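lol ok so funny story. i was supposed to be doing the assay writeup but got distracted and ended up predicting the structure for this chain instead. priorities right. anyway since i did it might as well share w the group, maybe its usefull for someone
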Amino acid sequence: MIEPLLHELQILANPIKALQFESYMKNKFPFFGIYQPIRKEAQKKYINEWKRLPAFNKWEVVFSLWEIEEREAQYVALDVLKTFSKKEILESDIELIERLILSKPWWDTVDLIASYSVGQYFLLFPEKQNFYLEKWTQSNHLWLQRTTLIFQLKYKQQTNFEVLKEQIDHLKKIDEFFIQKAIGWSLREYSKTKPEVVRRYLAQMNLSKLAHDQGMKFLEKQKRN
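and the output, tada:
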């Protein structure tokens, strides 16, 4: 099913840009070297065609794309995930979402999976949240732990600050850039909804400089304006 799209991506590939993208991503993955707007335009017709097929299995397509070496294929897979309607998300999907987090993990895929797929899933199945937050927190797996900090990024007024504070308390002593950055990022996003709540929290907590500075970014900008 995905072969025609892959063929088009190969035609659009730019080896010079691929090297630049690979360097930016610490040479963790090969790239076709296709800018996002060009890729999105190329993939649009295929995703629309797939959705019209009576036997279209979104998860099958997602994991087929995930197996492709070039990183852009994973980006297409994430865009396929975004086409899932709430009615199509099943309680069992959390195991598949977890599998994606654990496969070829880096911030470029995990952050979207966490803030979009995990965030949406826990809104639909809140009874599953505590189990997976505890499981992922205790896993000692960087990307699962980061997920517990940022899955509420898009929640705004729906953010459960008590849950966020609990996750920060569990993970704040981990000396890892992606954890500390996630702590700050989650607080920065919530400060756009509840600025004084976050300001008081940051004043009271002894967080790392990275987490604190990231958490204060929006508040400092607001103060300057």
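The chain is about 70% helix and 0% strand. The chain has a mean pLDDT of 95.
back to the writeup now i swear
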